TrEMBL record:
Pathway: Glycan biosynthesis; glycogen biosynthesis. One of its GO terms (biological process) is glycogen biosynthetic process. This is Glycogen synthase. SUPFAM superfamilies: UDP-Glycosyltransferase/glycogen phosphorylase. HAMAP family: Glycogen_synth (MF_00484). Residues 2-237 form the Starch synthase catalytic domain. It comes from Hartmannibacter diazotrophicus. Keywords: Glycogen biosynthesis, Glycosyltransferase, Transferase. Belongs to the glycosyltransferase 1 family. Bacterial/plant glycogen synthase subfamily. NCBIfam families: glgA, PRK00654.1-2. The keyword Cytoplasm does not apply. ADP-alpha-D-glucose binds at K15. Its EC number is 2.4.1.21. The gene is glgA1. GO terms for molecular function: alpha-1,4-glucan glucosyltransferase (ADP-glucose donor) activity; alpha-1,4-glucan glucosyltransferase (UDP-glucose donor) activity.
Amino acid sequence: MRILFVASECYPLIKTGGLADVVGALPLALKKLGCDVRVLLPGYPAVLAALPKAKPAKNWSDLFGGSARLLTGTSRDGLEVLAIDAPHLYDRIGNPYLGPDGRDWPDNARRFAALAKVGAEVGIAGANGWVPDVVHSHDWQAGLTSAYIAASEGPVPATMFTIHNIAFQGLCSLSLENGFGLPRSFFTPAGLEFYGQTSFLKAGLVFSDHLTTVSPTYARELRTPEFGMGMEGVLNERATATSGILNGIDLDIWNPETDAELAQTYSQARLGSRSANKKKVQQAFGLATDSSALLFCVISRLTYQKGLDLLVPHLGEIVHRGGQVALLGSGEAGLERVFTDAARQFPGRIGVSIGYDEGLSHLMQGGSDAILVPSRFEPCGLTQLYGLRYGTIPVVARTGGLADTVIDANDAAIRTGVATGVQFSPVTAPGLWFGIERAFQLFSDRKVWRKLQKRAMLHPVGWDESAATYVELYRSLAGEGVE
């Protein structure tokens, strides 16, 4: 099977969130199952720098306002990459979506329409003789890919579209860029139109042969007004062509036995070695080196979706109970300010680092006792999977992929030895405190806590099962979708 991924980011080349981790890891898992996968990315400076030996495969004299070329290369981890070298669209340092002022680049619609158009062209005509059986597009930035393919005449590849987070829909004016070269008939409520605007995400939902989401529960949630973000009608219409497939993580990159970012590597049989990492985390965040304190970590965007505002009223009580909090993240200015103020109010007990640091995130997973994930909605979530892998007990809201990946430590689950973390519901401030209280109770019995850690570390969080499911879908689509 030849599969083309179309995406806006891919670890380790360019990353702002979990999308990059998935697009970086899933192709390698598919490769082990015999698939030939190429990943098409915008040619951001970081991407081009990571492909110094890339070779040209195609040229355009005018790709949405300037010349461009398609480069082919291989990343250091063996990923086959196609990069769109279009300086007028992508030669910008920093965040791939935001300018220096923290706002969206004003030409984002053009930039990602170009990504989709090239994805469709490579999907139909190939690159250097390589022609995919299936084009698999990811999130709104690649949503127009399936529309361009649907507008083409002649043989076309099968198309799949994965919703990583339906909250981001790629909305722009209906008249922008003269319809991006797509047929006018596509711009209707049955097509790209979404309440008087164009939605790149809706293009993926409507024009793809098959849809996937990143967890079974999220697939069901999206068909309701509470979670569907206005797209629930479309998703109910396409329910029979939708699959919920859990994300996994790269077990080589996230491995406590070999992780170079840790102060001390460890295994399920050597959990005592985690103490060195806990001390290092406490030092990194200016916390008291108190081995007896229950150390909660937060590694997250500070946004309404992630529910971190629900944690704010409990910070003082966590400190009062003898706990500590280490937070790494950035986002809404008000939340950043509240947490940094709390760190000043509770020195040695609450530590905050605004921003993101990949190495520090590994250390936090390897040294914290528990990780808080109080998301109001969560398509899949990866930080709780890293927590399971590292024996950092997840305390999660019962929603989306969090509900699918963490087994709640209720009495029955503890007695039968299957518990891996704590779930709480409803997703409110009192609900979160109930989860935090349960974590304190579990932590107070170190024998129970150690068993919980060991069971968490045994929980399957890799790509094997999900990758096999994707291969089955690709085969089905290629048999039915290729003309």
